[in-house]
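Practice problem. Given the sequence and the SMILES for zinc ion, write out the predicted structure.
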Amino acid sequence: MVGTCDERCRLLKMPADHAIAEFGVSHLVLYDDQTFPGYCLLILREHATELFHLTPAFRTALLEDVCRAAEALQRVFRPTKVNYAVLGNQSPHLHWHLVPRRADDPAWPRPVWSHPHEKQVPPSARVRELVRAIRDALR
Ligand SMILES: [Zn+2]
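Answer key:
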């Protein structure tokens, strides 16, 4: 891996009850803002900032994790399309935004970032329900 975590990596830290699953080289968490239901982050366990820094085998393992998570989101939320995004402008630690999108969501068909909005953090009972549903779909 290249480099070590710094304070910007901590921006990816979600509340403990948002943890969904540990995968081969990453972990999946429910994003705190649930304006788009099922929005998750898949975060590389080790620090790296660019996909091209990863070995081919590691990259393959990461893509497996991405697909496993996205398939579960598809099962639970029945989206029109799963969106996949790797930006890293605010937190360079490699992570994927996995967003189940619906043709009737407020930003469709534009990227979720094109829709300025107040963060919608669900109550903990709803977080538990979403986390459980996604976990069940991973089995
Ligand atoms: Zn990091």
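Check your answer against the key. Residues 56-77 form the longest helix (22 residues).
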